[in-house]
C-alpha cells in the first residue's frame, strides 16, 4: 500500500490527463523511499504509517503519517516539477527539515 494515491498526487500536481501516470507513480515510489530513508523510519513504523488509519492507533503514528504525507507530496512534486534540473542537495535539506521532528535515532 502507498501513502499517497495516484489520484491524490495528480490532484496535488493539478494534472488532469493520464499521459504521465507512469511517471507520477514512479515519483510517488521514489518520494516514499526518500521520506522513509530521510526520516530514518523503521520497517515496523513505516508499515503502520502506510496502513489504513485506525481510530485506536497510537497518536504518534497518526502524527508521523501526517508529516510523511506532506514530505512525500513535497518530494514527488519537486521531482516532477524539476525533472530537467533538480537540485538534489536543496531537496534533501528541505526533506530533513520537514522530517526532523520524527527522525528515528536522532537525539
Describe this structure as you would to a colleague.
There is one protein chain. Helix 3 packs across helix 4 (59-81). It is built from five helices and no strands. By secondary structure, the protein is mostly helical. 24% of the residues are buried. The radius of gyration is 14 Å and the shape is globular. Helix content is 64%, strand content 0%.
Keywords for this entry:
globular, 107 residues, mainly alpha
Oligomer: single chain
- Indicate how many domains the architecture comprises: 1
Query: Helical content, roughly?
Result: 55-70%
Computed over alpha carbons, the radius of gyration is 14 Å
Tally of separate helices: 5
Helix-strand category:
mainly alpha
In brief:
The protein has 107 residues and is mainly alpha-helical. It is 64% helix and 0% strand.
List the helices and strands and how they pair.
Blueprint lengths: L5 H8 L7 H18 L4 H8 L8 H23 L6 H12 L8
Amino acid at each position: 500500500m502507498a501513502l499517497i494515491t495516484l489520484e491524490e498526487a495528480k490532484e496535488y500536481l493539478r494534472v488532469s490527463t493520464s499521459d504521465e501516470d507512469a511517471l507520477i507513480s514512479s515519483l510517488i515510489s521514489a518520494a516514499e523511499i526518500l521520506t522513509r530513508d530521510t526520516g530514518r523510519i523503521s520497517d515496523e513504523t513505516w508499515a503502520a504509517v502506510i496502513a489504513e488509519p485506525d481510530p485506536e492507533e497510537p497518536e504518534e503514528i497518526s502524527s508521523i503519517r501526517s508529516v510523511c504525507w506532506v514530505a512525500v507530496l513535497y518530494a514527488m512534486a519537486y521531482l516532477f516539477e524539476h525533472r530537467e534540473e533538480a537540485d538534489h542537495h536543496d531537496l534533501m535539506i528541505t526533506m530533513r527539515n520537514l522530517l526532523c521532528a520524527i527522525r528515528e535515532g536522532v537525539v
